[in-house]
Specification:
The chain is built from 32 helices and 19 strands. It has 836 residues and is α/β, with parallel strands linked by helices. 37% of the residues are buried.
Length: 836
């Protein structure tokens, strides 16, 4: 790449050089990020007066490793990397700008490669007052060394592909509508606000629109050049331009006068194709119009491809360029029309910043169950139809003399046919729900990998279960193999489709919610710590508000302290906050309390830290509870109805009887294996504390060596405990060692579900170190529980605190449906042999 020498008259004096921050949002850019960093290293602007701030969207490739290697090799270029869990460009930009130290901010992209004089010329244009946001032109290059990648690079710089987008050509310097990779003084952000992270694309155009509406100038200088690597495949190009079109409509609803002719043509073209195609089936002349439009468009594309192929002397452009341009037109227009249609069923654009639909975890579980039940019911009826068609097909094969029409009349889908379906077949939707019990937690359901794994496991377990039933059945011909197979396939496909929609809604609504934490102390930091571990994030935390002057401009977990409570309303408007979380332990200052009330009157959702913590983790924050809060919000809520207690006891009785039956079956095998492996005794007994501190004795299969505590010191079991025997390890993994405890459940000393029964010595020790530890004795201990299925062994006081948080969450929120779900998840643990 040949650089252009900057005239001496435009050179900046070193004594007046402002500090520059180059902000770069990125995600999985290992192929190009090094090219950008090398280009920045080659800048003529002094390295001591610049820094690079990269906001990484939790890359799953080697992006961060490449950056770290570059930092180690070139320590003179300051590079800072931060995590962007939201994984969106505008959020990444706002995060990087919030942490930037420069007087001037230069935005670049991980796909770009600026010329050596890029930063210097941007600073010169800003310092000379030519524009408030200054940018240059793109030199587009192929994203790969393939004929289609080269065609795409030509298309993205062709007037027929991008219209009058001036930054893709080489015009004279002057004021324009927008520029890519703008550069501006930091004060501009303070004046017009951050990039709008409600827009996942078109954030540059929207930002420049606000610049112009505020009286500023967007300046394009053709001497400020950068290389931009276009998408390498048609599929990537289609995804890119679909996003462009989709989010362009969302922006136009806010700024309708920003529509340009080049942006209106693709959706009109796609709409005309759809309308003419639909009408052509009814109206004969419309067919000619439809084909005439296709022929005319194809002819223009062919001429464009031929001209480019002759000019550049590359025959591949004859086919590749029309293909690339057509992809851009159709996907941009399709995305635009799709956005219009979907917006008819959603709130208005300005309401997106104040989302009205807020589902709590239990409501999300209800929505998931309802959706799964609906699609599994549809799968059941579809499977019955498949079974019908298969039966009809076999009948026709066995009776060739009967015509297909007559066979169809003989085999109708009527009441009699449905009566032939085995009764248990109609229970398949409920069985399907039970098989997917592991992915009904909101955070698990929002994760695509866990969802895919959960559905695959449900289908596999269903297949294995049916196979076992088929083997032991007295009359296998009565079992509709085709119907069950069809159900598993259709249910899997429909469930995945519905879950993809749910994940899309979940992540989109999460981006709509912009959360501000009031309090940057221990409670606020705890929320930030939990938030950093969530993937995908259920909302966007913008930062903190705190009245402590020592915390001003401080940053924790990439979240800045934006100001004090007296500026709360201003901060909410500037950062488009939708939710306020109060994370203050102790009393709240009167003025701060009034500010919080004012925000609630303006429609801001106000939540306490403890409630949000429960929603994010399924735990109660024991280290952030005050005694009066515990009395008001915990003790009062553990009271449950007599109906629940009665139903739970009935479930315990039936469950214990079933468990004792299993115990009797495995007793001879477990006893023999234990005796052979480590001798006597077979059973192990110990005193534990029950509800209200009542002492009772439990019995278990012995899984540890004899005299495991010979020194008399009480020690809890730990992971990979050396005291565990070989047979004991199997019994623990399958939780079969717990089956003798069903006697305690039957006697009423324990329940099927509840906190783990602990020894009095450990309770005495832990209650000295862990707040509210004894509160777990408010309910009966259980064979399994919320803590047992969500957390493993504990080997420290910190881990004991976490497990207590799960226990207290269960005590506070326990219901019969929650108990049932915990039992089902425990059965899954037994079948997978990953118990502890």
């Amino acid at each position: 790449m040949q650089s252009v020498t900057l005239p001496a008259s435009r050179k900046l004096r070193s004594t007046t050089l402002p500090f520059v921050s180059i902000v770069v949002p990125c995600f999985n850019e290992e192929a190009t990020i090094c090219l950008l960093l090398e280009a920045l290293l080659a800048q003529t602007y002094p390295h001591r007066r610049m820094e690079v701030v990269i906001s990484d969207g939790m890359s799953t490739d080697k992006t961060r490793h490449v950056v770290a290697e570059f930092q180690r090799e070139h320590p003179d270029l300051v590079i800072r990397v931060m995590k962007n869990p939201a994984r969106t460009i505008p959020t990444g930009l706002n995060q990087a700008i919030g942490h930037a130290r420069g007087d001037i901010v230069v935005r670049l992209d991980a796909h770009s490669m600026p010329i050596p004089e890029y930063i210097e010329r941007c600073v010169a244009a800003i310092e000379s007052g030519k524009g408030d946001n200054v940018g240059g032109i793109w030199e587009i290059r192929p994203g790969a060394q393939t004929w289609i990648a080269e065609s795409i690079s030509v298309a993205t710089a062709h007037p027929l592909g991008v219209g009058d987008a001036m930054y893709r050509f080489k015009p004279e310097a002057g004021a324009v509508d927008t520029v890519p990779f703008g550069s501006f003084r930091r004060e501009l952000i303070e004046k017009i606000g951050d990039f709008d992270d409600a827009l996942l694309t078109n954030e540059d155009y929207e930002f420049n629109t606000r610049v112009r509406k505020s009286g500023g100038t967007v300046w394009l200088d053709p001497s400020i050049r950068s290389v931009y690597f276009a998408r390498a495949t048609l599929s990537d190009l289609a995804k890119q331009y679909w996003r462009y079109g989709f989010w362009k409509w969302r922006m136009l609803r806010r700024y309708p006068r920003t529509l340009r002719w080049r942006q209106a043509l693709p959706p009109l073209f796609v709409l005309s194709l759809l309308v003419l195609f639909a009408l052509s089936f009814r109206i004969k002349p419309v067919q000619y119009l439809f084909f005439a439009q296709i022929i005319a468009y194809s002819s223009v594309m062919t001429v464009v491809g031929l001209k480019a192929a002759l000019e550049k002397k590359k025959s591949s452009l004859l086919f590749g360029l029309p293909l690339a341009i057509a992809t851009m037109h159709i996907t941009w227009g399709g995305g635009f029309l799709s956005s219009i249609i979907t917006s008819l069923f959603t709130t208005r654009f300005h309401d997106i910043l104040r989302p009205s639909l807020r589902l709590r975890p239990d409501e999300q579980r209800g929505a998931l169950i309802l959706g799964d039940f609906s699609v599994s019911t549809a799968a059941m009826f579809s499977a019955i139809y498949v079974w019908y068609r298969y039966t009809l097909y076999l009948y026709i094969l066995e009776h060739p003399a009967i015509s297909a029409e007559r066979a169809t009349r003989l085999f109708k889908i009527d009441v009699m046919f449905f009566a032939r379906v085995p009764w248990w077949f109609y229970l398949l939707p409920l069985i399907w729900l039970l098989l997917m019990i592991e992915i009904y937690e909101p955070h698990a359901a929002a994760n695509w990998k866990r969802t895919l794994r959960g559905v695959a496991i449900a289908a596999l377990v269903g297949l294995l279960g049916y196979s076992l039933l088929f083997i032991i059945s007295k009359d296998p011909t009565d079992l509709p193999r085709v119907g069950v197979g069809a159900f598993l396939v259709i249910a899997s496909v429909l469930t995945l489709s519905w879950r993809v929609l749910y994940i899309r809604i979940y992540t989109t609504s999460g981006r709509m919610r912009r959360v501000l934490i009031v309090g940057a102390g221990k409670a606020g930091h705890t929320l930030a710590d939990v938030y950093a571990k969530l993937n995908p994030p259920p909302f966007i935390i913008v930062g903190f508000v705190d009245d402590d002057p020592r915390k001003k401009n401080k940053v924790y977990r990439n979240l800045p302290v934006l100001g004090s409570s007296d500026k709360l309303l201003t901060i909410i408007d500037a950062h488009r906050i939708s939710d306020l979380v109060v994370a203050i332990n102790g009393t709240i200052d009167g003025a701060a309390f009034q500010s919080i009330l004012d925000t609630q009157e303006r429609g801001i959702e106000v939540t306490r830290m403890q409630i949000l913590y429960e929603e994010m983790t399924g735990r109660v924050p024991v280290h952030h509870l005050e005694s009066d809060w515990v009395i008001r919000s915990f003790v009062d809520q553990v009271r449950v109805s007599a109906g629940y207690e009665f139903s739970k006891r009935i479930m315990d009785i039936f469950g214990s009887l079933l468990g004792l039956a299993i115990f009797i079956i495995i007793l001879p095998f477990a006893a023999l294996a234990t005796l052979i492996d480590s001798g006597r005794p077979v059973f192990y007994s110990q005193t534990r504390l029950g509800k209200g501190g009542a002492v009772f004795k439990i019995y278990k299969f012995r899984t540890m060596k004899q005299d495991a505590e010979a020194d008399g010191e009480v020690r809890p079991a730990v992971e990979n405990d050396p005291r565990v025997t070989r047979v004991g390890n199997f019994l623990r993994r399958t939780r079969l060692d717990e089956t003798p405890q069903f006697f305690s459940v039957l006697r009423g000393e324990m329940s099927l579900v509840g906190p783990r029964a602990e020894r009095s010595e450990l309770v005495t020790e832990y209650q000295k170190q862990v707040p509210f530890y004894r509160a777990r004795l408010l309910v009966k201990p259980g064979l399994t529980g919320w803590a047992q299925i969500n957390y493993g062994y504990v080997a420290s006081v910190t881990e004991t605190s976490v497990k207590l948080e799960y226990d207290l969450y269960y005590i506070k929120h326990r219901t019969l449906s929650m108990d049932f779900a915990i039992v089902l998840r425990t059965i899954g643990t037994v079948l997978r042999q990953d118990g502890r």
